[in-house]
Specification:
By secondary structure, this protein is mainly alpha-helical. The protein has a domain at about 15-80: Arc Repressor Mutant, subunit A (Orthogonal Bundle). The protein is about 50% helix and about 10% strand.
């Protein structure tokens, strides 16, 4: 499910990382990045059917990454800002520490300017 600490107060049925594991769902997230879209608008951009888009959107909603908004007789889908920010915060926490340690190690490593030649024993 959801990694410990991410979206602690959310009651979600899906794991955001699992949801992003599918290339069609990643493409949908990219399409929703700039503006909300209908199922048909998303289907027009992808090589999958409207029912398939609907299933992918359901999984993205369950994972907290997308939300649905009714406007008249249209349903618009957009990125869920809270879910995306929680995912971003988790990644920054995990990778931010790693990047900071790598930078510190790189800054404290003496660069002799010489490269070591490979031998047959390497």
């Amino acid at each position: 499910m959801i990694p410990i600490g991410i979206m602690e107060n959310a009651k979600l049925a899906g794991d955001p990382f699992e949801a992003l594991g599918d290339p069609h769902r990643r493409a949908i997230v990219e399409l929703l990045f700039n503006n909300p879209r209908t199922v048909q608008e998303i289907a027009d951009e992808l090589p999958i059917s409207r029912p398939a888009v609907s299933r992918h959107l359901r999984l993205l909603r369950e994972a907290g990454l997308a939300s649905q908004e009714s406007q008249g007789n249209r349903n618009l889908y957009k990125l869920d800002e809270l879910g995306v920010k929680a995912l971003q915060a988790y990644l920054e926490k995990v990778w931010g520490n790693l990047i900071a340690r790598f930078k510190l190690a790189a800054e404290n490593t003496e660069d002799t300017g010489a490269t070591r030649e490979r031998t047959d024993n390497d």
